[in-house]
Specification:
Length: 326
């Protein structure tokens, strides 16, 4: 039986469109139940605060609840493991503070593939601040480094955990500054590390500028320097590491959203588009700014490039310093 050419073309066009229909439908229907946003740190810290701000706004946009699930431990490794092994159905997201690929350098054994993540969008960038107790002998970063050089390995510093951006930034500072100090990891820094810093049980802390700013401005601790090449707009009173004599030191970090690798691309695309929209909102920028975060979205490809560059940099630092997450 022969079909008229016009009829045949209509049938062919309709058949070609059929495979795309399920993909379009899945994006249009998403989400139709609770979405889980995993964060690898305990409640009360900067990463947790960012996650809750994002979850609240996405809940409003989607008219569907987005719940934050805290899975602290092992420098975010527990959270990454949870998400990598979750069904790739679009209902599990991780708010990550580092490139998932760094896990292969930090841990000798992994129960997940560190490449098994689909980048979604950057949330924002931030810088770190190094602080010391208010009565610490060092009043400048140069004095702190001189003291560390005079007492190799005896100066201690706290971070939110092994392999976190704060920890790796401090390790990189040791390499660039030519001195040594001993890492004291905490499971988040909201309480334990700050208490030990105030009691002079540790010599310094490296963490996000936003999380340490109130304590530094109130005089409870002394801020010495920020890690980016330029002074922080949030805290312009603190000099940079470069201004303090550490040549070429320029480190900023980011928060980003990732999902299991095989999550449908149309769902990744939808979440990315929604993140681009909400991160451009003045209200969202004003909520993230006090935390020391400059709200900046990205394409999935841009976040993948960020993660690749970070993995290359920190991978070399991890190998050079012998850091182990186990």
């Amino acid at each position: 039986m022969k079909f008229p050419r016009r009829h045949f073309l209509r049938l062919a066009a309709g058949a070609a469109a059929l495979p795309a229909l399920p993909r379009i439908a899945s994006a249009q229907a998403y989400p139709n139940r609770i979405v889980k946003l995993v964060v690898g740190f305990p409640p009360g810290g900067g990463a947790d605060a960012v996650s809750r701000i994002i979850a609240h706004r996405l809940s409003e946009v989607w008219s569907q609840q987005v719940v934050v699930e805290n899975k602290p431990g092992a420098g975010s490794n527990l959270a990454l493991d949870n998400v990598a092994n979750s069904p790739p159905d679009g209902y599990t997201i991780i708010m990550s503070v580092r490139a998932p690929g760094l896990s292969r350098f930090l841990f000798s054994q992994l129960s997940y593939d560190p490449d098994a993540f689909a980048p979604v969008s950057r949330i924002g960038t931030y810088t770190h601040l190094l602080v010391v107790p208010k009565d610490h002998p060092a009043k400048t970063m140069a004095e702190f480094i001189a003291r560390a050089k005079a007492n190799p390995g005896k100066v201690t510093f706290a971070s939110p955990g092994v392999g976190t951006p704060s920890h790796l930034t401090a390790e990189y500072l040791k390499v660039k500054g030519g001195f040594d100090m001993t890492h004291v990891p905490y499971r988040g820094v909201a309480a334990g590390a700050m208490n030990d810093l105030l009691a002079n049980r540790i010599d310094a802390m490296v963490n996000t500028t936003g999380s340490l700013l109130q304590a530094a401005r109130s005089g409870n601790v002394r801020g010495l320097a920020v890690t980016a090449a330029k002074r922080s707009q949030l805290a312009p009173e603190f000099p940079t590491m470069q201004e303090s004599g550490v040549a070429g030191f320029d480190i900023s970090s980011w928060y980003g959203l990732f999902m299991p690798l095989k999550t449908p691309p149309d769902i990744v695309k939808k979440i990315n588009a929604d993140m681009v929209t909400i991160l451009a909102e003045p209200a969202m920028k004003s909520r993230l700014s006090p935390l020391g975060i400059e709200a900046t979205s990205s394409t999935p490809e841009q976040l993948a490039a960020d993660a690749k560059a970070e993995t290359e940099l920190w991978g070399e630092v991890i190998k050079a310093t012998g850091i182990k997450g186990d």
